[in-house]
Design brief:
Elements lengths: L1 H35 L30 H14 L7 H19 L6 H18 L7 H15 L6 H21 L5 H21 L5 H15 L6 H21 L5 H21 L5 H14 L9 H19 L6 H21 L5 H14 L7 H18 L7 H21 L5 H21 L5 H20 L6 H21 L5 H20 L4 H15 L55
Helix pairs in contact: 1-3, 2-3, 2-4, 3-4, 3-5, 4-5, 4-6, 5-6, 5-7, 6-7, 6-8, 7-8, 7-9, 8-9, 8-10, 9-10, 9-11, 10-11, 10-12, 11-12, 11-13, 12-13, 12-14, 13-14, 13-15, 14-15, 14-16, 15-16, 15-17, 16-17, 16-18, 17-18, 17-19, 18-19, 18-20, 19-20, 19-21, 20-21
Length: about 600
């Protein structure tokens, strides 16, 4: 009898709690209807869809089922779909945020109730999943759900796309906020909004992309974009561009794992917001294209690559290309290709050399991207120079105890030199460009690891001279192979650094010209049928000897020492709350490539 009474009491308590929650939700709905106005949604039509996403049944117009009610229903279903129980406060915050965000996103859009309901469902589900076994603040949950639902509203998108974009955006923003517990809720909201929005836009363009790709791209982008020091406009744009770039990269490379996709988006967004926080006047178009290119480039290598390599390659590439664009009036295609090439090269080298430290990966990508930003050079030259420079810097660091500033400067110098020569010798094969940059960076890192007393300015200029000299010489020797050019650049860079280690007061112009002359001598040896080893030795010897002589040709101005790249995982200290959200200006997305086969969710 006592058990029966206890059961009845428990049932009554739960019933009262349910009534209280329903009353709260009705209050929310009333407030939303009063604020937004039912008339805003009068033209919305209710339909039934055969897709897997949540649907709203029923015919007729908005009088029978308002978008507000559809949003609330979807939000409640989404929160309930996560098995781990939420507290009443968490449940209420998530449902409220997802409902309000979906309704806000539908304002001034002729949007179907199914889109609204699925956006709310996905946002609530993602926020709930993000807090599983975690202690997330209810304000974080509410704002993550709000931003994701708002960003996912897009009438042209399939409801599965909407739902998964919202889910990934909310979950990523919650996870990012848990890792950065001082993050302002405006940052959290904008990270979720941008990630969901970018993912839906990419899903509309690439309609056959699997929804798991979309969800993971949004998740990584939102998580990486949570950064307390960055303006919310930077946060939103970084998240959006990272999601778009990751989806576009996955559309090109269909066999890529969703964990790889998530980490490419995470790293690219993280690099974007870190660079945006350091350069607060950064142009949003520069930021968007740097982040898009970094995420896209990191997904072009179809190999078994560690996700830390993916993340840090994308991070460094985004960061470096933004830094390279500072104080330059440079085309956004240049930015995109510099970032894409650097990320692609870093991932490719990281896949082959799996024991390389991730700081090496990050700084190689950053230096290569920064050095590859140049206005008057063909974008194919930019992409390949960046790729080769990143690869070479990483290969040079294998089994070496090398300073990451050496890695960064070698990559930057090699890319710079390859661009200079590529701009003059426009008919040179891009494989020559890539291999010259690779050899120059590799030689400088290897020699810099041995000769640790050498200044990083020496490293940068030796790499620059070797890459430039090798390409200039190869332009006049079309029968020389890219591998022979690489050996010549490697030898020229090595010889110049070794000379500078012994003669530390020598002008860096002398170093640059010694490296160039050494590389040219190596290419000359190649024309006589010398082996790769003989080519490298000839270039190295010339670089060492020529450093003792002032070259006849006019020397170039020294290259400014670059800023060191920050550590990949360190989170910035919190600062004052950022400014209110501003809608970003749209940037033209890169041309889509062939879409993958259609896959079910």
């Amino acid at each position: 009898m006592t058990r029966i009474k206890q059961s009845e009491n428990d049932s009554n308590i739960e019933s009262r709690k349910s009534q209280q929650r329903s009353l709260k939700r009705r209050t929310i709905l009333s407030g939303l209807i009063a604020t937004v106005g039912v008339s805003s949604f009068a033209s919305a039509q209710q339909t039934t869809t055969q897709e897997q996403g949540t649907t709203t049944q029923g015919g007729g117009g908005g009088n029978q089922q308002s978008l507000v009610q559809a949003a609330e229903q979807g939000a409640q279903q989404g929160a309930d779909s996560v098995e781990d129980s939420l507290s009443e406060d968490e449940q209420q915050a998530i449902v409220e945020g997802a409902t309000q965000g979906a309704v806000q996103g539908a304002v001034n859009q002729n949007v179907n109730v199914n889109v609204v309901q699925n956006a709310a469902f996905g946002a609530a589900q993602g926020a709930a999943q993000g807090t599983v076994n975690q202690n997330a603040n209810v304000n974080v949950l509410q704002n993550a759900a709000f931003g994701a639902a708002q960003g996912a509203i897009n009438q042209n998108a399939n409801v599965n796309v909407v739902q998964n974009a919202a889910s990934g955006g909310a979950q990523g923003a919650v996870q990012g906020a848990i890792a950065n517990q001082n993050a302002n809720v405006n940052v959290v909201q904008n990270a979720a909004l941008g990630a969901a929005q970018g993912c839906v836009q990419a899903g509309v363009t690439n309609q056959n992309v699997n929804v798991n790709v979309l969800q993971n791209a949004a998740l990584g982008a939102a998580q990486g974009a949570v950064n307390q020091n960055a303006n919310v406009n930077v946060v939103q744009n970084a998240a959006s561009s990272a999601a778009q770039g990751a989806v576009q990269g996955a559309a090109t490379n269909q066999n890529v794992n969703v964990n790889v996709i998530q980490n490419a988006a995470l790293g690219a967004a993280q690099g974007g917001v870190q660079a945006g926080a350091a350069n607060q006047n950064v142009n949003i178009n520069v930021l968007q294209n740097a982040v898009t290119g970094a995420a896209q480039g990191a997904l072009q290598i179809n190999q078994n690559v560690n996700i830390n390599v993916i993340q840090n390659a994308a991070l460094g590439a985004a960061q470096g290309s933004i830094q390279g664009a500072v104080n330059q009036n440079v085309n956004i295609n240049v930015i995109l290709n510099a970032a894409a090439g650097a990320a692609q090269g870093a991932v490719q080298a990281g896949a082959v050399n799996q024991n390389v430290n991730i700081n090496v990966i990050l700084n190689a990508a950053a230096g290569a991207a920064q050095g590859a930003v140049s206005q008057n050079v063909n974008i194919n030259v930019i992409l390949n120079a960046a790729s080769g420079a990143a690869q070479g810097a990483i290969v040079g660091a294998v089994n070496q105890n090398v300073n990451i500033n050496v890695v960064l400067n070698a990559a930057q110098g090699a890319a710079l030199g390859a661009l200079r020569a590529g701009a003059i010798n426009q008919n040179v094969n891009i494989n020559v460009i890539l291999n010259a940059a690779l050899g120059a960076a590799q030689g400088c890192v290897q020699s810099g690891a041995v000769n640790q007393n050498v200044n990083i300015n020496v490293i940068l200029n030796a790499a620059l001279g070797a890459a430039e000299g090798a390409i200039n010489a190869a332009a006049g020797a079309p029968d020389v192979s890219p591998q022979e050019v690489q050996a010549a650049a490697l030898g020229g860079a090595t010889g110049a650094v070794e000379f500078a280690s012994v003669n530390q007061n020598v002008n860096i112009n002398v170093i640059q010209n010694a490296a160039a002359d050494g590389a040219q001598q190596g290419v000359q040896a190649a024309t006589t049928g010398a082996s790769l080893e003989e080519i490298q030795q000839a270039a190295e010897q010339e670089g060492q000897v020529d450093g003792t002589q002032q070259p006849d040709e006019e020397t170039q101005e020294p290259t400014a020492e670059p800023e060191p790249t920050p550590e990949p995982t360190a989170e910035p200290e919190p600062t004052a709350a950022p400014e209110p959200t501003a809608e970003p200006e749209p940037t033209a997305a890169p041309e889509p490539t062939a879409a993958p086969d259609n896959s079910s969710a």
